[in-house]
Amino acid sequence: MKTLKIDHVGVAVRSAEESAKLFSNVLGLEIETELLDKEKLKIIMAKVGESNIELLEDLDTQGTIAKFIEKHGEGLHHIAFEVDDVNEAVKTMKENGYRVLSEPHPGAGGTVVAFVHPKDTHGILLELVERNRH
Ligand code: ZN
What we know:
By secondary structure, the protein is α+β, with helices and mostly antiparallel strands. It is 22% helix and 44% strand. A hairpin with a 5-residue loop joins strand 6 and strand 7. The two termini are 16 Å apart. The model has no long low-confidence stretch (mean pLDDT 96). Residues 8, 10, 54, 78, 80, 127 line the site of zinc ion (ZN).
């Protein structure tokens, strides 16, 4: 398994559109909006060089992101590493005693993703992302 780069930093926000103004209008970054129907999330990706800022807006008031904001306010939600093989990455995490919160499943932009428990990763919710699955 190879860890390639920081794919994105996920930020929990009340309004993706509102938050995107900073990244697009002020910082001049390219943005892309996507709706994840199953997760009831509106996502805006702002491209920063090789990485992205992922603005996460919950469309469900009882959703994970909505609950996160209720508890902590808006802010840093997770860090995502791009890996060459997410299945293998999950296997490696488990073998080393890290709890995986979700088996690999479709993420934004046609990726396959899995999350690792923040209690096992020094308080950082870690997302493993595989792009360009062949
Ligand atoms: Zn993410």
